[in-house]
Amino acid sequence: MKWKIGCIQMNIAFGNPNNNFSAVEQWFEKAAKEQCSIVVLPELWTTGYDLTRLDEIAHDEGKDVLQLLKEQAKKHQFHIVGGSIAKKVNSGVTNTMYIIDKEGKLVHEYSKLHLFQLMDEHLYLQAGEDEPIFTLDGEKAGSFICYDIRFPEWLRKSVMSGAKALFVVAEWPTPRVEHWRILLQARAIENQCYIIACNRTGSDANNEFAGHSMIIDPWGTIISEGGSGEELLIGEIDLHEIDEIRSRIPIFDDRRPKKY
Ligand SMILES: NC(=O)CCC(=O)C(=O)O
């Protein structure tokens, strides 16, 4: 399976879902012109980290976001890895990613497992309970949100269940951009899989965000990498290449699970 991926490395209007909805529709037009087969959005793309106003601006069961993403996927005939949004549920607010296929069907939902205390997530959000694995075009993939990439065993679990591409959506700040780049490359190398990572750019009152979205192959080679500003980062991947890499260094045959 070959996929042409478009990562929407956008700035996010703080606490202003309507502005972000309009901006994303423009980005989708661009991605359609590039004939992308999968389009990826960043973390919390409708609100940014406006966590103190979540009562007012979080999305009730994600309904309005789902409607927009479903319409857009169908209109442009691409799959959408929908970044994440603040989703209001009975028990609180989750940081939730939707995967929509090109027919406009909700394929999968994943809420961030690891809350990032440095940005106060533990005070305003609740951790998810979902499994990250999903299927698109008959291929298994994994869904992860930002801080999740610091927990290699969480990503490995999806790969052990057959995921060949791991999608990461993020609001990763500039001071730790080298952690972002190195962790993503390491996750690709150790799992011999594709990593598609979409980060936001711009800033809010507390953080400047790094951009540097990345598409990385199973050898760890960077196929494409964004700069620090807004852009649609494009990269083409071929999932068949995974077999070649895994036969060159067969780490999945050489594992010693009884020892760890
Ligand atoms: N939004 C996040 O989860 C940020 C994670 C982060 O910055 C890190 O260093 O980890």
TrEMBL record:
Q: Which residue ranges does the record assign to the CN hydrolase domain?
A: 3-239
Instruction: Name the SUPFAM superfamilies on file.
Output: Carbon-nitrogen hydrolase
**Source species, domain of life:** Bacteria
Q: Which Pfam families match?
A: CN_hydrolase
Matches recorded under Gene3D superfamilies: Carbon-nitrogen hydrolase
Question: What family is this protein classified in?
Answer: Belongs to the carbon-nitrogen hydrolase superfamily. NIT1/NIT2 family.
Q: Which PANTHER family match?
A: DEAMINATED GLUTATHIONE AMIDASE, NITRILASE-RELATED
| Protein name stated in the entry | Amidohydrolase
Give the organism, scientific name.
Lederbergia wuyishanensis
